[in-house]
Design brief:
heterodimer, A: five-stranded antiparallel β-sheet, four-stranded antiparallel β-sheet, B: six-stranded mixed β-sheet
């Protein structure tokens, strides 16, 4: 092919990106610009702080397609986002004129020493495969002219927000980037490229989360026993409740009967451990839970503990103290804690009236704060006083009296 | 043309008022010549078909407590409440109907047949209790044309008989309930701003505190219980009420206690009484503050405070009002009668709106300039399953559609979405209450709305609630995509436990044959 023609085939598409209407290149460039604009719109003050490239191999073969991932940080002073910029360079052979092409991007985790690849998942449906959560990014690059399109410089084709990606595990990961140029209907793959890069994943991966779930539940059982023995005695009703929860929650669907028997034996041993007066490091357990469990699971754990506390039909002062401590250490806010208490351990079960737990008023509130807070509580419980359920009515009547007494005490 | 009547069916006392020929309401005395009839019932020991209502019933409590009933209003709407007399079970509705029958009977002596009435209820009464009150009226042979909130009835009477203008707070504390209603009054134009109420705060609760004081003092001296039977309790309840009334006039009240271990004289000062009821007065203060907050008004923004209900005579309550608002409350109207008088006016307004041809010209002329804008007494909503923002999980919650204190008539809509793919049934529940937690709201009705099959999730469903001046509610659930609509209409005489047929049947069975004296 004449040199001039080759040059034209290189330069014209590049020029067309900027100027010629209807060209796939302009469309391509326009999409990139729009993507940047879209990224900017998400945060008006967001700007690219720096572009950092991390350890990418750049063994280029100009006769074929090459790809690389460049990690950049975007954001403001308060909030910085990691973004993977996917770039390609090299040659793409287009078999026919007006060929509608797409870029397909996928990622896999190849950190494992054996090189076994684990898929990277997508957190958004938009980039999930049709029947799985595997990350699968596609973007239209429009119509390409027949022949060899050469990109001599690295050209960005996508920006992948780290928020879209769910890696298998936390920590330093070796990732394999796969870029393909495909026909729009996906039937024909024109060319593909791969490259590896490393990324420090700060979040738990999906495999971590699966394991964390099981670990969390085991720790939950421990905390439940702690609540059970808080008043100095572990009652049968408390043990039954904890065992029932453990059986229902810890995944033993795949295990054999033998293993299930071992599980039951372990539960019995745990009962024996606590009944003998042994203790566990509650602070450490809570710290671990707070680290690995999402908020929803921490609520579940506190609910379990509350059910255990109320298993005997009443909640004592020691149990209440432990519950309050657990709520704080599991980082559950006081209003949520009180809502849960209201549902699971209504006031008629309390052997001790704790104003902070029942109505949320604390000694560090000044008169005006206390007055405002008590009015809020009064409005809430007064609305419940005409409920058709007599139990709710009784609870509301009790609370209204308690709130009135508290007003005399805290407001005067 | 029938008489236009208003009835105050109170916890401790009831009254009936009628509109005269020129549209002025007047109290109709009972057969004993009393303007107020105690809301007490006594089933005669010898003749169980003979039922005494009023003063005689109050006095008979001391003789046979088990055959007496008082404060039945506190049990209105409670399906589980029954009073068993001679093997027959009487519900709260039926017992209230006896009181209404007595009022009807006594007034018909002078005025002839009483049919069309408006009955007053506490502002905080929910739909179940309002319906129960209407049912009681129907059972007593009355045509209940409407229900009016007690503070509103009182305000109506005040506004038509006195110079009342600006932001008015009606402070209604009767025998069993306490309501606060804030209105904007300009001459005969009355716009209700908001209402709040406490269902178990009234004169009888003050009496109970005094009774506890008496019991405590007796036990301290004699180490023995003062009260050993229901009849004795009934007697000392009346004594406690008497002490309370005395302390409204004097600074000290003295009583002799004749107990099983001995007799003692008890002296209770006003200060001691105020100390005993401090938790009740705290509750009253809180309700006032909550009502003002809800109305978005500071105490300094209130121009007038109207007192309603016998318990408003208690000095400490009036003093606290004066302290809060900076001026003394209005006391020129009879606090015991203004609700019934206002209810009669409300009956006239209702008749003018619905059956103008049945309203005598004199009454129509008197009432034509009065305009009352009422509000929705409670919030109405539906049960849905939103995603909890903190946990990312679906939760079952009550979502309010029509907010409390919205001026009537009112309408509100919200959009919801189907939850699952292929969903063909939508369980639509209409709720009443202010909570987001479903266990704390009343579920008025539940219906199944059939949806088209084979559709993805997230199909929009528009829910519209409309509440009109006649307390009729219209609920519409509309599937936007298909245009399918599910509509529910209910008014107080059509929902709940007692259908009109059942009311008539029960009336036929029990009340027709009983004699009320």
């Amino acid at each position: 092919m004449p040199v001039l023609l080759i040059l034209i085939l290189i330069l014209v598409p590049m020029a067309a990106m900027a100027f010629l209407p209807g060209s796939g290149g302009r469309f391509w460039l326009a999409r990139l610009i729009n993507h940047f604009k879209f990224s900017r719109k998400r945060s008006a003050s967001r700007k690219t702080r720096s572009c950092q490239s991390t350890g990418f191999s750049e063994q280029l073969d100009s006769g074929t397609l090459n790809c690389r991932a460049r990690l950049i940080k975007q954001g403001t002073d308060d909030c910085i986002f990691d973004t993977i910029v996917v770039e390609i360079c090299g040659s793409i052979y287009i078999p026919s004129d007006d060929y509608y092409a797409v870029v397909g991007i996928s990622l896999s985790d190849v950190t494992h020493p054996t090189g076994e690849a684990m898929p990277v998942h997508s957190s958004t449906r938009k980039w999930q495969g049709s029947s799985s959560e595997v990350f699968c990014y596609n973007t239209d690059i429009g119509r390409l002219p027949e022949g060899i399109a050469k990109l001599t410089d690295w050209t960005a084709v996508a920006q992948l927000s780290i928020d879209w990606l769910v890696f298998p595990r936390k920590g330093k990961r070796k990732l394999r980037l796969s870029v393909s140029i495909l026909s729009r209907d996906g039937d024909e793959k024109l060319v593909g490229a791969q490259s590896d890069f490393t990324y420090e994943n700060p979040r738990f991966g999906y495999l971590d989360m699966q394991e964390n779930i099981q670990q969390t539940k085991s720790l939950a059982v421990a905390l439940a026993f702690v609540v059970g023995v808080a008043d100095g005695k572990l009652l049968d009703c408390e043990i039954d409740l904890i065992k029932s929860w453990a059986r229902g929650n810890i995944d033993n669907s795949q295990i054999s009967k033998r293993t299930r028997r071992k599980f039951e034996k372990a539960l019995d041993k745990t009962v024996g451990f606590f009944r003998s007066g042994n203790q566990v490091d509650v602070n450490e357990i809570c710290r671990e839970i707070a680290e690995i469990a999402p908020l929803a699971e921490r609520y579940d754990i506190l609910e379990l503990c509350m059910h255990v506390a109320g298993a005997s039909g009443s909640v004592g002062a020691e149990e209440m103290t432990v519950l309050k401590k657990l709520a704080g250490q599991l980082e559950i806010d006081i209003d949520r804690f009180r809502d849960m208490m209201g549902r699971i351990l209504p006031v008629d079960m309390h052997s001790v009236e704790d104003a902070e737990v029942l109505i949320g008023v604390t000694s560090d509130m000044d008169k005006e704060q206390a007055r405002h807070h008590l009015n809020k509580e009064y409005r809430k419980w007064n609305a419940r006083a005409t409920n058709s359920d007599p139990q709710v009515q009784n609870q509301a009547d009790y609370m209204l009296k308690f709130i009135a007494q508290a007003r005399s005490q805290y407001v005067g | 043309m029938s008489n236009i009547v208003g009835i105050d069916l109170g916890t401790t006392f009831s009254a009936l008022a009628i509109l005269n020929g020129i549209g002025k309401p007047q109290i109709v005395p009972n057969a004993d010549g009393e303007r107020l009839t105690p809301s007490a019932i006594f089933f005669d020991e010898e003749d169980s078909e003979l039922i005494r209502v009023g003063v005689e019933a109050v006095n008979s409590r001391h003789l046979n407590f088990d055959r007496s009933v008082r404060w039945i209003k506190r049990h209105m709407g409670d399906k589980k409440y029954h009073k068993k007399i001679d093997g027959k079970k009487w519900s709260a509705v039926e017992l209230s109907a006896l009181i209404l029958k007595k009022l009807k009977q006594d007034s018909s002596v002078e005025y002839g047949e009483i049919n069309d009435v408006v009955i007053s209820v506490p502002a905080h009464f929910d739909e179940v209790r309002r319906k129960a009150t209407m049912d009681a009226g129907a059972m007593a042979g009355l045509n209940v044309i409407g229900i009016v909130n007690e503070p509103v009835a009182a305000a109506l009477y005040y506004a038509t008989t006195r110079e009342v203008c600006g932001k008015v707070l009606v402070y209604d504390i009767g025998g069993g309930t306490f309501d606060v209603t804030i209105l904007d009054v300009k001459g005969h134009q009355m716009d209700i701003v908001c209402s709040q109420g406490d269902h178990s705060l009234g004169g009888i609760d003050f009496d109970k505190e005094i009774l506890k004081f008496l019991e405590r003092n007796y036990k301290e001296k004699f180490e023995s219980e003062l009260i050993n039977s229901d009849e004795e309790r009934a007697k000392y309840e009346d004594e406690a009420e008497d002490i309370k009334k005395t302390l409204s006039r004097r600074s000290v009240a003295k009583k002799m206690l004749y107990g099983p271990a001995g007799n003692m004289k008890v002296e209770i000062t006003r200060e001691m009484f105020e100390n005993e009821v401090s938790s009740l007065t705290s509750r009253i203060d809180m309700l006032l503050e909550v009502a003002l907050e809800e109305a978005g008004i500071k105490p300094s923004g209130i121009d007038k405070v109207l007192l309603v209900g016998g318990s408003s005579r208690i000095p400490v309550l009036q003093q606290r009002l004066e302290k809060m608002f900076g001026f003394a409350p209005e006391t020129t109207v009879n606090v015991d009668e203004c609700v019934a008088l206002g209810a009669a006016l409300h009956a006239g307004l209702t008749m003018l709106r619905e059956r103008e041809e049945d309203v005598p010209a004199g009454i129509a002329a008197s009432l034509k300039d009065i305009n009352l804008i009422d509000v929705c007494n409670h919030s109405y909503g539906t049960i849905c399953a939103p995603i909890d923002k903190q946990t990312g999980r679906r939760v079952i919650a009550n979502r309010i559609i029509l907010k409390k204190n919205t001026p009537l008539p009112c309408e509100a809509s919200q959009m919801f979405y189907t939850m699952s793919e292929g969903q063909t049934v939508l369980e639509s529940t209409i709720t009443q209450g202010e909570d987001t937690a479903v266990e704390y709201v009343n579920k008025i009705s539940t219906h199944k709305f059939k949806l088209p099959p084979d559709r993805p999730a997230n199909r929009p469903i528009k829910v519209t609630y409309r509440y009109d001046l006649n307390q009729r509610m219209h609920c519409k659930f509309e599937d936007i995509e298909s245009g399918k609509v599910h509509e529910v209409d209910f008014c107080l005489d059509q929902n709940g436990e007692m259908s009109p047929k059942e009311v008539k049947k029960r009336k036929g069975k029990k009340l027709k044959s009983v004699k009320v004296e």
